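Blinded run. Sample ID left blank on purpose so nobody reads anything into the name before looking at the predicted structure. Input follows.
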Amino acid sequence: MKKKKLLLLTTGGTIASAKTEEGLAPNITGAGLRQFVGSMLDAFDVTVQDILQLDSSNMQPEEWELIAETVYKNRRKFDGIVITHGTDTMSYTAAALSFMLQGIPIPVVLTGAQLPIIHPLSDATDNLRTAFAMAVAGYGGVYLAFDRRVILGTRAVKTHTMNFGAFESVNAPFAAEVNAHGLVIHKEVLPACDPQFPLQSELCREVFLLKLVPGVDPRIFDMLLRLGVRGIVIEAFGAGGVQFIRRDLTRKLREVIHNGVSVVVCSQCLYERSDFSLYEVGQRALEQGVIQTFDMTSEAAVTKLMWVLGRTQDRMEVAKWFATNLVGEISLGCC
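Blinded prediction complete.
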């Protein structure tokens, strides 16, 4: 039986880290990772390519574009692609790649580890095993594999710093799970594929995420305007609350939007949807022209706004994109 051809792209992260005088740092190459996993890869025809060697705290839109372009160039050469990545920003990278590579007909699976692969108790090998299983399953899309679970790229959120179950699938079922039946795929979660999909890697860097706290000074929006921000994602309270007494944020939002900035608002609550029509504090925000994100994660909202603003600066067009489910980032019936 012919072996499936897989590409392993390495970008650094804890999985590839070792101790240095200044703490853990990524310095193990793809060849080194391959030595540690040993015979696990014998079932596949694996090509290894080192493209980055970064702690994921240093992973930024420029790196997302590089990864997307590398995947796109190799899309016809391999049956699936596995990307090793640091855990701290892996959910942002997974979401960004989901939008840039939407429609990709082969699996692209990100994974990493909470302990370096050189540690005798590392979770790296198990995570890689799950990632490779998903990569040969034949279902196109961008996924994150961790702790024997596979999550849609736009639904993954890191919720633990030490626990091996570091990621949750927020507001969506797992794309796949490993149990006594092997890798069980939940097909209803998977995104649509298009063999002729185009690479859409242009991102707007001028996007800012603001978490509201009681008493936040509205003048922060003046600072953002001076910085040239083109998009703002606001994590509001509850189902969708923005203060308007004493420190009136809604009036300032109107000014920001009038200056051509797209303002997207989500909830600080991790689970369930936001609905700004429920309360006066939310309705006042909607009246100023803010754009709802419904049940999207903050990571998906930020990266989607970067992606959309890379195509249009028209606020009405941005609003249409955010009311459209592209790669599973919004639950059907939410918008």
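Unblinding after everyone has recorded impressions. DSSP finds nine helices and 16 strands in the chain.
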